[in-house]
Amino acid sequence: MGTSSRHWSDSVKKSLIIGAVIIVLGGISFYSYKKNQKPAITYSEYSVEKGDIAVTILATGTVQPKNRLEIKAPVAGRIDEVLIKEGSKVRKGQIIAWMSSTERAAMLDAARSKGEEEFKKWSELYLPTPVLAPIAGTIILKSVEPGQTFTNTDAIFTMSDHLTVKANVDETDIAQIKLNSSAMIVLDAYPKSPIKARVDQLAFDATTTNNVTTYTIDVRPEETPDFMRSGMTANVTFSVKEKTGTLLIPSEAMKVVDGKTLVMKKNEKAPPTETVISTGLTDGKRTEVLEGLVENDVILIQDYSIGDGAQNSSNPFSPKFPKGGKRSSGGPR
């Protein structure tokens, strides 16, 4: 009885060991099979439709006065009265302050000590000197207050004719930007208030920093808003080319073979075919089609999935599709 029981126990142990080995070997084989399995190629459909496309160049810059002008008095003296404040718009020749020369200021101080009548008499005989705005523009800095003395080398006011954005553009993009072309300014301080602008000046001299060569482009707002200030950081979008109502497809739908641009076109009663197309503008995400496709043609865009029946996984680096196109899951038929 004891011998029979021991023999049965050994048989069970051998069976369990054999079963465990089979399970392990089966798991390894399955893992190896799944690991070596090639991705199943699937496709998504995209209906070609018309839309708008714009090629743009992005750059950063700083708000600066186009012409910054320091106003200095012709002689040393003292400010009697300031007629403007910072931010005031002035015209050329406008009186912005009254001043007394050092001699007049000393004489009036002596007259005042003798009484009001004496002071009035000499004030009318010896008139103050006006400080005039040399150009039309905006007062951006007021450096003096009434009663303050200064020399003829001190800047008592600073003004500018108008504000511009000086944007730094890479040398590879400079050829695409033209004088008077449109642009859009967005200030970091006011991101929800874009400002329409135009290219006012292209620099002829380059600046090289850390082996990167850039050119400074002056961008002038069509209308300068009150919140725009000198020194603000700005992002500028330059419009290079635009087209409306043109055929567009996702750029990821194309491939280039032997110098030809191809797309996979779906056919109603035949297998899909590779079609040669001619392209135009591209913004990186979408590309204009000049020849080879017509509106409402359906093209196939390759996706990837692991295993049969697995869900298609979109490439996270692929561009998003425009709202105009109709994209639905499916395979080539």
Structure description:
It is elongated, with a radius of gyration of 38 Å. The two termini are about 70 Å apart. It has a six-stranded antiparallel β-barrel. The protein is an alpha+beta fold. A hairpin with a 7-residue loop joins strand 18 (about 260-265) and strand 19. About 15% of the residues lie in helices and about 50% in strands. It has helices at about 1-35, 100-110, 115-125; strands at about 40-45, 50-65, 70, 75-80, 90, 95-100, 130, 135-140, 150, 155-160, 165-170, 180-185, 190-200, 205-210, 210-220, 235-250, 255, 260-265, 275-280, 285-290, 300-305, 325-330. Pfam families: BSH_CzcB. One of its GO terms (cellular component) is efflux pump complex.
Quick tags:
3 domains; OB fold (Dihydrolipoamide Acetyltransferase, E2P); 48% strand; disordered C terminus; alpha+beta; single chain
How much of the sequence is in beta strands? over 45%
Strand count, sense and barrel status of the largest sheet are: 6 strands, antiparallel, barrel
* Count, helices: 3
Total discrete domains: 3
Give the overall shape, derived from the CA principal axes. elongated
Strand order of the largest sheet: 2-11-15-13-12-16
Low-confidence stretches: 306-333
Q: Total number of β-strand segments?
A: 22
CA(first)-CA(last) distance: 71 Å
Helix and strand pattern: HEEEEEEHHEEEEEEEEEEEEEEEE
